[in-house]
Amino acid sequence: MQQVERQNFRLPFFTAAVQQTRLSSYFFHITALVVRKKICYDKKIKCKNKSPFAIAKKRLFRKKGEAMLDFIQKNAEPLISFGISVLIFFGFFLVSKLFQYKMVPVLRHLFSKLKGNFATRLLERINLPLSSFWLLIGAQIALSRLFPQNALPVSLTHIFRSGYALLVGWTACNLVDLIPILPQLNWNNSEAIKKILRRILKALILAFAVVIVIGEFGYDVNGPVAGLGLGGLTISLAAKDSAANMFSGLLLLIERPFELGDWISCTAAEGTVEDISFRSTKIRTFANTVSVVPNSVLCAGTITNVTRMEMRLSKSTIGITYDTPRDKIEKVIAELREMLTTAPDIVSDTVQVRLTGFGASSIDVLVQYYTTVTAYKDWLAVTERVNFDILSIMRSNGVEFAFPSRSIYIEKSGQ
User: Over its length of 415 residues, how does the chain's per-residue pLDDT go in tens digits?
Assistant: First the structure.
């Protein structure tokens, strides 16, 4: 009988405690039977072959369910608002992902058929900021439904405004890469200079966005900004020469009066430009030395760019002796004019051969023309050839060159 009752009630957790005496085992089994029958009678449920712990567990779950239903009934409206807020945020999240992974690729495919890739690059720059923008709007609308009259607290309003300011700054920084900065700049180091200018512009945009964020949280930014202004003024006064050179370098980059490899002449030096930086310019002179000229000195004086000449002037004066007859002078002038007009590397419309005056010891004939070559070496070669031709024409006509001379007359006193 005892064996059968143990198998029916299945109380293994009591067995270890009742193994000492048969009387104690019988007592615990009778107690468990009474407790189970009492529970079944109160709740009017079937308790066949069920332990009292399973019954207690079922009662506990029933109590929790009743408490949960009671909680839902008492807080139905807030829970509905919370559910709607979750659905709204989830909807904006889907819109953000659809825009990022579906709409942008379709637009990129359509814009790829157009000339140029500006639209495609624009989509790549604004893809992530716009996706984040949708998420931020969704979060703001969803949270606003959880508060009375759909109005966010002041602290959350400042947070969302700061987020919008940072998003605008992020978008502006991405668009800086699309802005053509100094498109006329084509030096060897122009890309590095453009990259530096873009970084400076991005830093200014981010600094402006951070100032807006600080101001949104109620901090006074006028004091720090004024302090930065005073600090900048102090630094500028301490390094005004460096600042002047830097601004002069920016002016040189913008105006481009010369480029690398150009032959220039300024108040400080004359030669070939070898390097240009924000502070100074390196010029290799005639003596093969390198002169480092501050940019402020270059901007303050006159810069003559010899390389950019379209034509190069050659001008000289021939002195003919006073005892030369007029017909020979006219013949020499005519032959010189014809020779220069037909000579190569000379602009024929610019040839001028004229008798310009009477000097102290010679009749002066002006020989002036422009060469099509502007490089100094080539210009010297053309000038040399012309000078040899002038010498041949003078010799063939028997006309002599005059040179500075002085005639002395000695008078004899009468005896």
Answer: 444 444 444 444 444 444 444 444 444 444 544 445 444 544 444 444 455 556 555 665 666 666 666 666 666 677 777 788 888 888 888 888 888 888 878 887 777 776 667 777 777 888 888 888 888 888 888 888 777 666 777 778 888 888 888 888 888 888 887 776 655 555 544 565 677 677 778 888 888 888 888 877 777 666 655 555 555 555 555 556 666 777 777 777 777 788 888 888 888 888 888 887 777 888 998 888 998 988 888 888 888 888 888 899 999 999 999 989 999 999 999 999 999 999 999 998 999 999 999 988 899 999 999 999 988 889 999 999 999 999 999 999 999 998 877 767 777 765 4
Output the furthest CA–CA distance in the chain (Å, rounded).
192
Distances (CA, A) of 36 to 24, 101, 197, 249, 336: 19, 62, 86, 98, 140
Residue 296 has phi, psi (to 5 degrees) of -65, -35
129: its two tokens: 């900021």
CB atoms within 10 A of CB 45: 12
- Nearest 5°: the CA angle 409, 414, 415 is 140
Residue pair 246/197 in contact (Cβ under 8 Å)? The answer is no
- Report the SS3 class of residue 265: strand
Q: Where are the alpha helices (DSSP H) in 44-117?
A: 52-74, 76-98, 104-111
Packed helices 190-216 and 154-176: angle between N→C axes, nearest 10 degrees: 170
| 3-class DSSP assignment, residue 101 | helix
Neighbours of 305 (CB within 10 A): 16
For 128, the 3-state DSSP assignment is: helix
Name which of 298, 196, 309 is nearest 256 in CA terms: 298
Residue 262's H or E segment, with its range, is: none
